[in-house]
Write a structure and sequence with these properties.
By secondary structure, the chain is an alpha/beta fold. The protein has eight helices and seven strands, in the order βαβαβαβαβαβαααβ. The relative contact order is 0.15.
């Protein structure tokens, strides 16, 4: 299947590692002209070089911290100056520290909201007009299975990422007729550094070994294993593709069946 991504201008946020990097690599392999972002310029430079070497694609990078209220403006201005805008925007951000709902304070919520919600909405609004003008665009927000089935000891993530569900659905309805789709992709237990961090936190909280926590977690997944980044990235590529033009306002799971609801 031709995904129709060759020469599409793509921007993936928080893409120097983990799921963001996986999605960036997969889109680049499909021929997208790519920009990645992150907080560490030297790391971004290395990752951009590695992705380009692996895929043969054209990869650029922008240093930005989504916790900075001015980050959306900086990213939008940079990508517009270099690429003339984007056709594909993949919204992504790092996860907040583990903890229970009773651990959360109002101050922590406000501190995390900028990076996880504010900058994403601001940047999308800045880049959306070009998509609408061209009559084609893809906005994909990488979230968490916690927006459908809250994950124990990840209360902050469950809370803030859920806000993006209502926003995505609202925006999808507003821009569907202009050829722009807006969807969310929900990972389950995909084997990344973030997943390992969560396993370590749960091991400490429960007084168990990381191996025991990991084994129990895998046993709770119908497929009996953690997902691979490449599996998740392949789904992201499809949602950003031309054939996926009639999918919008949706939450799609890539979780090995771990969410128990239909």
């Amino acid at each position: 299947m031709d995904l129709g991504l060759r020469n599409k201008r793509a921007l993936v946020l928080a893409s120097s590692q983990g799921l963001g990097r996986g999605v960036a690599t997969a889109l680049s392999a499909e021929g997208a002209v790519f920009t990645i972002t992150g907080r560490d310029a030297s790391k971004l430079q290395d990752v951009a070089y590695q992705i380009a070497a692996e895929t043969g694609g054209e990869v650029d990078y922008i240093e930005a911290d989504l916790a900075d209220p001015d980050s959306a403006r900086k990213i939008a201005e940079a990508v517009t100056a270099r690429r003339g805008g984007v056709d594909i925007l993949v919204n992504n951000c790092g996860g907040p520290p583990p903890g229970t709902a009773r651990d959360i304070t109002g101050e922590q919520v406000m501190a995390q909201t900028q990076a996880m919600i504010g900058s994403i909405i601001d940047l999308t609004n800045r880049l959306l007009p070009t998509m609408v003008e061209r009559g084609w665009g893809r906005i994909l927000t990488l979230a968490s299975s916690g927006v459908e089935q809250p994950i124990p000891n990840l209360a902050m993530s469950n809370t803030l990422r859920s806000a993006l569900v209502g926003w995505t659905k609202s925006l999808a309805t507003e821009v569907a007729a202009q050829g722009v789709t807006c969807n969310m992709l929900l990972p389950g237990r995909v084997d990344t550094a973030r997943t390992r961090q969560i396993d370590e936190a749960n091991a400490k909280k429960q007084g168990k070994s990381v191996d025991d926590i990991r084994a129990a977690s895998q046993a709770s997944i119908p497929m009996g294993r953690y997902g691979e980044v490449s599996e998740y990235a392949a789904v992201a590529c499809f949602l950003c593709s031309t054939p996926a033009s009639y999918i919008t306002g949706s939450k799609l799971r890539c979780d090995g069946g771990s969410i128990r609801s239909v």
